[in-house]
Specification:
Helices cover 37% and strands 13% of the residues. It has 19 helices and 16 strands. The protein has a five-stranded mixed β-sheet. It has a three-stranded antiparallel β-sheet with strand order 11-8-12, sandwiched between helices. A two-stranded parallel sheet has the order 1-16. The N terminus is likely disordered. This is Extracellular solute-binding protein.
Length: 542
Amino acid sequence: MDALSRRTLLKGLSAAAVAGAAGSALGCSAKTTTGTSGRIGADILPTFAQAGKAEPALKSASPLGMSGYFEYPANPVASVSKPPLSGGQISALTYTFDPVAPGKSDNPLWQEVDKRLGGKLDITYAPAADYAQRFATTVAGGDLPDVVSIYGSVQQLPALLKAKFTDLTEYLSGDAVKDYPNLAGLSTDAWRKTVYGNALWGVPIARVPIPSVAWIRADLVAGTGLPAQPKNIGEFKALLKGLTNERKSRWACGDPGSTLTMIAASLGIPGSWKEDGGKFTSNIELEEYEKALADTRELADAGVFHPDGLVASNNQRNDWFTNGTTPIVFGGYAGWSKYEMWGAEVPGFKLGSLPMFGYDAASKPVHPRGSAAQAFTAVTQADPDRVREVLRVLDWLAAPFGSSEYLLRNFGIEGQTFTFEGKDPIVNSRGQNLRLVPFGYVSGPTLAIYDPGRRDVAQARFDYQEAALPILAPDPTQGLYSETDAAKGLQLGKDLTDTRNGILAGRAPVSSWKAAVTKWRNGGGDKIRAEFEQAFSEAGPK
């Protein structure tokens, strides 16, 4: 399709308005994610070259891992020799997970970014939960900014990219990316997120593909005799039951769905699909999944979950964790430092994490897999000189840890938003607000593990990463696209989640799961499967 009407765009894009980046709560709605399959875009991917010169204190054994640092390098210098703009302006549309930052006129950090860019960077953004609707309206209106974040599930995405955005293959493929050395430092797997029709359509927002962690209040487990680091399903159940004391208004955790995911992972169940000889099976179709569901129902019947756990927001669950109501919570790996910050004023607070465990001695656990790219930034169609100018700005924003650009974007201006304590830039309360401008969701470097003044936190984050990456769940859909999944995956996933919640709440038997899976297959699941199998075949051999 060479042209997309306004009505088609609004209809197709609005359906994804609440899809977000994570797909369904059950992980059965496969995403266009990235991974290590090596199948997607292998002949056009940018040539990787390490960006920056900062020597890490902790170096990952995996190409997907982040390096760890205990201090910021002294006398940081710019990674880009001259400003990428010559008085011009770049406009961007993106998303954020944070509160709204002070506007440019009241934000000296943003003003300094403009100064060092040599022009103006104007960013329009929306909360991540609302971004798909803003994206749909903007694209359908036709007046596009210079760069646009492609985040979450989008219908007719390949056609939309071709109609509205720039094929960046000639600018970034292979050694061409060397013109943008900071972009060359993004992981190869992250770039696969941008490949459609064997062409590169954007710059990835690279991430380590660890989506979540099971946090535990180590201080509340200490001295109880409970297995704080369970090694099998029996010890895991004993931990949750032992932490629960309804008379004291304490329940082990507040999220039955994430507990189900953890038990499924202990059985080696993949995050979404299993592939064998080119044939795909969804995780929800496996007998092991129903077994994990039965175990979670057993825990629900034992009362280990907060009574409002199925309907609570993430913020509520985090509050329960911090105040000790639920000593276990499932949260984003990237939010490790936030949990430490929230607990800083709680007497005796000590953050711990639960490792992935095998269901029994014969089981090989997996760790749930995230995406190596949270989103990607597409460049609106323009003449080649303008495209190169835009890419230079994206390259500047991707300056790596240790550079002066990174220091500015993440910590601000010395004396105004942060002060150095030794070699650590410690942000003040004003800086915490000013630095909320979502530069990193327009373009950013490969993330680094660094917690100013907290070497213990950096070490804990790194250790968890190194244990998780070797056992990441396989996902053969990574880098593949299914139009049916983009159009119907959200609703199909909601139907399954409703059935799952009914089982966990005791309103339906575990045996009702089979009927829900049949409904999913007939409603579009089998078509999604067929589209992924075809895309997998067309991607060619590894």
